[in-house]
Amino acid sequence: MSTRATWLTAAGAACLAFAVRLDGAIHFAFWQDEVASARAIAQSTPVGVAHQVARTEATPPLWYWLGWLVHSVGVPMHDVRIVSALAGALLAGAVVVYARTLVPLWAAALAGVAVSLGYQLVFHGRELRAYELHALLSVLLAIAAARRRPVVLGLVVAAGALTNYFFLLSVAAVLLWLWTSAHARARRRPLTVAVLAGLVPFAAWIPVLAFQYRHHRASFIGAFRGHDVLTEYWSLFSRGQHGTAAAIALLVVILAGSAVLAISDLGRLCAFLAVVPYVIAAAIWLAGPRIFDVRNLIGVAPFAAIAVVALLALLPRPAGLAAGAAALALLVVGYVADNRRGPIPYDRIAASLSAAGWTAADPIVVHGDFFSFRSPLEWYLPNQPALTLGVPRSVCPRVFVVVHRHVRRRVRARPHGGRLLVATRGHGPCVRAVPEASIRSQLARVP
Questions:
Q1: Mapping DSSP to helix (H, G, I), strand (E, B) and coil, where does residue 255 land?
Q2: In whole angstroms, what is the distance from residue 120 CA to residue 294 CA?
Q3: Closest CA relative to residue 41, chosen from 93, 91, 102, 83
Q4: Domains of the chain: which residue ranges?
Q5: Strand 396-403, strand 406-413: pairing
């Protein structure tokens, strides 16, 4: 009965996770990074996919190969996002099953709800990116290690290392557990060999990793900021900013719950996976490389959720259940608050531009981040024109302005008041197209 209840609870968590991701996966427009994914997946061969990933991405290629495979059998590019939604559903179910080995069923169910509704997990579970698959593989890594299955462990390591570079930090946590665990002592060597064998495919990709790093595709992260380290767990589960005190309180709860888990041998594995990648990533960032970003650490989120419920389960049953109910209410309220407003509808903006008569000769004024608009509008505008930053020279016959998700056409106007997007080919003489290499410096000069 306990096993049946666990699987039913896992199925319920999986259904919840899939339901909250599906609508966005189907209806939301691609944003900047998703367009980069779509361009990689749209390549004609797996080798072409790998070349595109090496040229434009900061991740390994497995997710893109998977997307290419799904797309090549006839699934429309937007619907390939369903892979991420399915990964989110499997993630929630796997968290319940794994957590049940460490905490009571009600606490395992709460952990499943946390990964079903947590902001970063929902966001990445409905997009054309690899992060939700990364989180799922992190939990499968824990299950394979805890059950001491060398073959499964090696396969998960191989898949995870080729999905996201930060998965390697979770592998480091597992190796630390293997060599300090009495539970794993009898099979320590074959499990370690399995991990090393699983890293062989990744080793072949290392030259590409070096190429990607030299091109500084994570430079937007900026220099080390202690505040971001302290609040990163909070950012995994909530979009809203409720002050540093609340974020630090969650950090303390997660660390305390990890300490509770670490009392047992199997619980220590979960504690290591919740904390070790987080600490290593922060230390690397402090040393100089700009890598510490909330989505890169999505693999610790399931284990952080389990750490929280482990601390709640330590309370006397009435108090623990009451605290769990309060946590559940916060998760639901947070999910509703975080998703009150959808993302920018780039597809509808592009359709409005087209309906209003936009041509490649016409500049587009946008209010907001230049790069956020450029790639999606390139993707959705007719004939997918290449766009770049423009600098006004004179009065233009027509200017199209995007304001609050609406398009306005101005006749005989000088483009001003925002960032200027122009077609690299065919733009009118009233604007000058900025060369790609000079875009960032030009943006820095203009407030």
A1: helix
A2: 8
A3: 83
A4: 2-338, 346-445
A5: antiparallel
